[in-house]
Amino acid sequence: MTNVHRTIDALWKLESAKIIAGLTRMVHDVGLAEELAQDALVSALEQWPESGVPGNPGAWLMAVAKRRAIDHLRRSRRLERKHEQLAHELEQPQDPEQDDILRLMFISCHPVLPTEARVALTLRLLGGLTAEEIARAFLVNEPRIAQRIAGAKRTLAEERVPFELPDGSELAERLSSVIEVIYLIFNEGYSATSGDDLMRPGLCLEALRLGRLLAELVPYEAEVHGLVALMEIQASRSAARIGPSGEPVQLHEQNRGRWDQLLIRRGFIAMLRAREIGGTPGLYVLQAAIAVCHAQARTPEATDWPQIAALYEALARLLPTPIVQLNRAVALGMAHGPQAGLALVDSLTGDPALQDYHLLPGVRGDLLVRLGRHEEARREFERAASLTRNVAERAFLRRRADGIAVPGAQGVTLGRAARSFLGRDDLDAETIRSYGQTLRRLCLTLGDQTPLASLTADQVARAFAMAWGEAAAKTWNRHRSAVRSFGAWTSSDHLAAGLDRRAETRPRTETIGSAQLQALWSRPDLPLRERTLWRLLHESAAGVRTVLSLNVEDLDLDDRRARAGDTWVSWRSGTARLLPDLVGGRTRGPLFLADRRPGPSRTPARADLCPETGRGRLSYERAEYLFKQATKPLEPAGNGYTLRQLKRRT
């Protein structure tokens, strides 16, 4: 990359938000505004290497982008009365209004967008990051990020979200969404949820830049300054929280001499501004106050844990989430002893929101170590390691587990017993898959290394309630059956004692109305296979899998019936007209064939393969998909019908 290209790249990250914000105010379409800004960037890449970087490069980019906007407006014959006004604006000084950038923040973080889309769009429009850079930061593929950004722009256009500042009660709600997005970006940089590295500094820096910018734009909002204070102080510990091998260093073990004092001072100043504004402390001001307590302590022993515990109690009243309560448990354990913290942690172990949260067993392991319950602590650290997706954190937790000596053999563990149970020769593939889902969830929730002999029915019941408490009766009973089979095989019949069978009620399937059926039968574009299958399902009232299992050699075309196992499937004239053409001279093999021959790695059983064409049997999933797609225009909600709904009304 040449020096000019590096300059352009740096300038784009600094100026893109202002340019896009100004253009959005002109064209009222954030997607179009970004395209026009990109056009200006392309012009710079083409011209500057030869002509040199202009004296005011930001103004140059803005001027070119606005000219493109005016050209677009003229071509589309919109806002003609504004041409003179826009042309006049082009001659004015090029510093865009600060309100434009604030409007862009609000539109990028609009509640109409899902959270992931808000984050991606904010980094794209306000951070100037490419889809590739965002994808690399979040360890996902570039097309997925591009889809999120494109989908977000499309949603904003479809919902006609105005490019304006909210007012009144809506302002607080919308501002809260902006703060949330910025802090989500910071958190992903500060504690990466997946990947090899513990931190992604680029995201931290981008979140800090956005937070400082927001504080300039809305200087009278205490929560914004609280957010900035929180991020500044947390970022100050970055150098101290990673060891020489990339491993995490816990707060009480960090070298506080490596904390960045400039960032701490900036955090203190932001906190003072929040306090000067006054009002009841909000979520971010309270979290910032906790960070200030840690930053003020010169040594871990000097930390004011009672004050931190009191702040967490206030935070829990505002935001009584399981994660806040877990953080409060840590503070209680430090302020009032590990037993106080453990009591609160144990009350959270049944919360479904924390079933895959690795910090729950991690915190519990810390408290158990301090109580001298080392065997239990080791199992908690092992369980935490199995739950985290971050490689550095997983290695750290496994080292903590390995560092705890276990006196003597502990007998057969839950994980070992589960693997032996699933490795039996008398289980078919479908049963192994089904049982495996149940046992993997129990191992994650209860701990892979938990001695099987120590498991109680109450523990299993709590794990079930956490994982499947809200599931349908059929799903609950399937997992219950797996535990009963596992318990019988391991001579641990008591494991399912607390799991009552739930009554299953099958909802009545609504059939397709006659008007919709007539519209379906009259479509000339339907393939012969689909028309025959759907007619047969409607006229026979047989099950979908039964009809798909039919073979050509089982057909009796004269009597309009076919043998299907121990029963018969019969049809009427509509199917009778179609079947001869579908069979087409074939004498053996599946009646309904897949679209193409199977690949070498997916050869079906001989009974499901046509010896004459080499194609396999049409799958239930593929048949269902095709029917849903074909009936979307007919179904009132636009979701399409299911094959089961083809049965005749009785």
From TrEMBL:
<dbReference type="InterPro" id="IPR036388">
    <property type="entry name" value="WH-like_DNA-bd_sf"/>
</dbReference>
<dbReference type="Pfam" id="PF08281">
    <property type="entry name" value="Sigma70_r4_2"/>
</dbReference>
<keyword id="KW-0731">Sigma factor</keyword>
<dbReference type="InterPro" id="IPR013249">
    <property type="entry name" value="RNA_pol_sigma70_r4_t2"/>
</dbReference>
<dbReference type="InterPro" id="IPR013325">
    <property type="entry name" value="RNA_pol_sigma_r2"/>
</dbReference>
<comment type="similarity">
    <text>Belongs to the sigma-70 factor family. ECF subfamily.</text>
</comment>
<keyword id="KW-0804">Transcription</keyword>
<dbReference type="Pfam" id="PF04542">
    <property type="entry name" value="Sigma70_r2"/>
</dbReference>
<dbReference type="Pfam" id="PF20239">
    <property type="entry name" value="DUF6596"/>
</dbReference>
<protein>
    <recommendedName>
        <fullName>RNA polymerase sigma factor</fullName>
    </recommendedName>
</protein>
<feature type="domain" description="Tyr recombinase">
    <location>
        <begin position="507"/>
        <end position="650"/>
    </location>
</feature>
<dbReference type="InterPro" id="IPR044068">
    <property type="entry name" value="CB"/>
</dbReference>
<dbReference type="InterPro" id="IPR007627">
    <property type="entry name" value="RNA_pol_sigma70_r2"/>
</dbReference>
<dbReference type="InterPro" id="IPR013324">
    <property type="entry name" value="RNA_pol_sigma_r3/r4-like"/>
</dbReference>
<dbReference type="InterPro" id="IPR014284">
    <property type="entry name" value="RNA_pol_sigma-70_dom"/>
</dbReference>
<dbReference type="InterPro" id="IPR002104">
    <property type="entry name" value="Integrase_catalytic"/>
</dbReference>
<keyword id="KW-0805">Transcription regulation</keyword>
<dbReference type="Pfam" id="PF02899">
    <property type="entry name" value="Phage_int_SAM_1"/>
</dbReference>
<keyword id="KW-0238">DNA-binding</keyword>
<dbReference type="InterPro" id="IPR046531">
    <property type="entry name" value="DUF6596"/>
</dbReference>
<dbReference type="InterPro" id="IPR000838">
    <property type="entry name" value="RNA_pol_sigma70_ECF_CS"/>
</dbReference>
<dbReference type="InterPro" id="IPR004107">
    <property type="entry name" value="Integrase_SAM-like_N"/>
</dbReference>
<dbReference type="InterPro" id="IPR011010">
    <property type="entry name" value="DNA_brk_join_enz"/>
</dbReference>
<feature type="domain" description="Core-binding (CB)">
    <location>
        <begin position="412"/>
        <end position="491"/>
    </location>
</feature>
